[in-house]
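Minutes, methods subgroup
Present: GH (chair), OT, SY

1. OT presented the first of two proteins processed in the latest run. Sequence and structure tokens recorded below as shown on screen.
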Amino acid sequence: MQQIFLYDTTLRDGTQGEDISFSAEDKLKIARRLDSFGITYIEGGWPGSNPKDMEFFERARAIKFKHAKVAAFGSTRRAKNPVEKDENIRALLDAQTPVVTIFGKTWLLHVKQALQISPEENLALIADSVGYLKKHEKEVIYDAEHFFDGFKQDQEYALKTLKAAAEGGAEILVLCDTNGGTLPWQVGEIVREVKKNISVPLGIHTHNDSDTAVASALTAVREGCIQVQGTINGYGERCGNANLCSIIPDLQLKMGYKCVSDEQLAHLASVSHYVSELANVKHQKNLPFVGESAFAHKGGVHVSAVMKTALTYEHIVPESVGGARRVLISDLSGRSNIIFKAKELGVELNDKSPAVQKIVNEIKEMEHYGYSYEDAEGSFELMVKRHTGEMKHFFDLERFKVSIQKDSLEKEARSEALIKIRVGNETEITAAEGDGPVNALDLALRKALEKFYPELKQIHLTDYKVRVLDTQSATAAKVRVLIETKNGNKSWNTVGVSPDVVEASWKALVDSISYHLLKHRVKSSH
């Protein structure tokens, strides 16, 4: 089984993506995680370009990586500088990394218009820079920037640039589709042609501007490239880089190449989530292999088939990449969805259970009204427990009143909620102020209930989303409120729908509190 060497540039090329930023500490954490996962090369940044990258390289020297080599990234020397006096080259050496990756120009458009030098001078820049770094005992990876565009314009010159880097001593020549405009079949043809003329091992670096970065990288490997460059989750400038979270399982599970161990591959999803968490960006649900929706089934026919044979609607075993099968609940749900989800909740139902069809009917009716249970599994579980007789009644509402007061245009509005609830034969009246009407209502409700259920002090609302459902109705439109509540490391979502945003929020709040009380009381009884 041929080994493919993985080169991760999340910490450099990935940070050029919009909304992506890492502190030096973040970069060190990610580097450790990538090393544990089995990445061969970790590109840490461009030394000399900013203090953060220099801090990373300084601190990374103290880390003993098990698998990975850290690479510093930079460009060839400037045209007017002797290589030994070039600041960029010196910064690369100062980073003290075992690997240095430098890029040079392949495309005559860039040579003549961006650098404004002759083609011969450009070849000298490449050979001098690579050769000088080799003299300092560095493993040198040469990135041929805009290679495919350059090859299309002048095949002979593009190959000359590679030969200049090879003569300088570069260990790997990486063919870069920097603009992301080359299609996979073109990549394959060009790599094949390069292989005829170049004996040094090749790598591939693709961007996703044509939405084909992964396909192009896979094609390049099939044609003989042994190193693949990319980023976790495809982060990168413009439309992003080739997504290693897709490339790795495609190569290993579908094409028969070796990238990491099977045990490491099973951590792919957690690595993907870890990086997005540190980047402070929402993890995309629909990412292949590692997204929450990658193995999610919604249609009743699909669920029924998957329960019999997973292969019917799953192209790989979810656990092989750290994923998990999910069954979604919606108006498309059939009896199979309900039985599967109920089993996850510890409720044994079968096709003959009377509750199953009642749950299906209620879901269809509620979703027609505007509810959505895909992201509100807390509310769905309460529905199941109601139909199976396992739901408990914790309190009754006597009344609530929410008021908003604003004293002037300049001052912030103030919200106050007054609530009266009954638990058994006792009633409690409380009031609370909040940042808004929903926050005030949440605080007042908990304040009233904590006398009877002190365990409510353990939970807090962590997210609140409002969606207008029928926008043509303007201010009379129904709204769907989704609330996320957390208790330590466990969180759950609940949903409410109403033409009144406060009423919709109230429904979601009641479900949220009831869910926690039900779970806590059941747990306490064991």
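2. SY then presented the second protein from the same run.
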Amino acid sequence: MNLRSRIIAVLLTVSLLPILLMGISAWFVFGQLLERKSLELQNTVLKSHADAIESYLAKHLNSLQLLASTQELKQIAEQNTLNEVFTSLNESSRSAFEDLGVISADGNHLAYVGQYDLMGKNYREADWFKQVMLEGTYISDVFLGFRKAPHCIIAVKTTDGNQPWILRGTINSKQFDDLVSTGALGETGDVFIVNREGIYQTTSRSGIVLETSAFTDSHSFQGVQDRKVQVNSVEKIQVTTWIKHDNWLLVAEQDAAEVRAPVNRAIAKGALIVLIAVILIVVTTFLATRHLTNLVDKANAQREEIFRAFTRSAKLASVGELATGLAHEINNPLAIISADQTNISDIVLEMPEAGEDRIELLESVKRIKRQVERCRTITTKMLQFGRKSDSQLVLTNAAVALREIGSLLERQAKVRNVELIPDIEENLPDVMIDPLELEQVLVNLINNSLQALPEGGTVRIVGKQVGDEVLIEVIDTGNGIRPKDLQRIFEPFFTTKPVGEGTGLGLSVCYGIVKSWGGIIEAESEVGKGTTMRIKIPLSNDS
């Protein structure tokens, strides 16, 4: 694993692990909390709904009590009077009663208003009759009775003198079912009532009135309870509470998935926020790591380049010392050879003109002289490479020098079918250099470019200011330099020219000269496209 991968792994672990742990914790903790709150809301709604149903029954029970207490048995037992009373009662209660009847103390139906034929019926043995005669008021469970139809009654007992009688009304079943069902929550919600035997008292999604429900073993409890159950393989939340003096169980059912839906939506929103945060962290980590590792790579590359430059400078310095010593050592025997060559030449010239030996000796002397001059040229370059001569640094107008050198070499370039193109900025600032050395460096670089263009081409001489440096470039369209050779072109005695055509000291000397100015010389080349030699000279404080 590389450095970048390790940094990314560490940063992502440190950043994401706490978020993931917090997200998982929030998933469970807040998920359960939100689900509990949803159940509490259902409990509250059911409790309020139970109070509404109790109020509904109590209201109509009170209406019958008030009505019975204000009527005399003889009067209300008349059919016309009962009709008027029934009409008035339904107007005030919004048709809460299906029928109304007056029953004597011995269970006979004295008067009746409604759709069933109940006159003459006797209720002495009916459970509801016994309860109302015993307790004074009674709200029954749903039963069939003489009408053979499910119904629920409200009955009150009153006394006319010493004679008791009963006013009984039948609750409007549809109205009561509608009231109960309004407590349902959501699309899957259902609210219904069962009695203590588990018999449906209102219509529900899972059963009809007077059918037996699953609540056959319900026990009394205070307040509201909730639980999870399986109904037809569907998980449901049941919320229950007792009403009508613990005789009816009010039940609210809803699919658990629908109850948890708001919780899941809240968790999903939280998960989305966490996901966005994770994405931002990951993207930021990758970008920051790439930026940092790029800086590290760049610093390493600069360090390696400085180390290579330092190593190259050290090598060049060592070779320069060696070259200087060799040049001095070689110059001494060369001086002796040159002196002996002069003496031999003088002796030969004093010999008689006739004779092939004289001619042969003169040719040998000339060859010796040429080789001595060649050796002196080599030792001179070695001395220049060793930088034993002192540079005369003065403020120099580089633009003027570049134009003069371009003009000087223009004819030589034309002979080689090469176009020399000057590209020199006006008002180029002065730099602290040795003018003669600048001429030597540029002539060397331009000659190298001309030699790289045996079939013609272009050489562009560039001079411009870039920041706080003067940039000089010699750009040719020659064959270019192979990458493996490009790294060695400034090494002494390294050359790509054929044997006998180069010493390998030209660019080394140029390198030493430019370094003595405090500048930089570098090469950029691509095989088949050409080479750019680039010199950067810092501006002096006085320029």
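Chair's summary of item 2: The first strand starts at residue 97 and ends at 104.
Next meeting: continue with the remaining queue.
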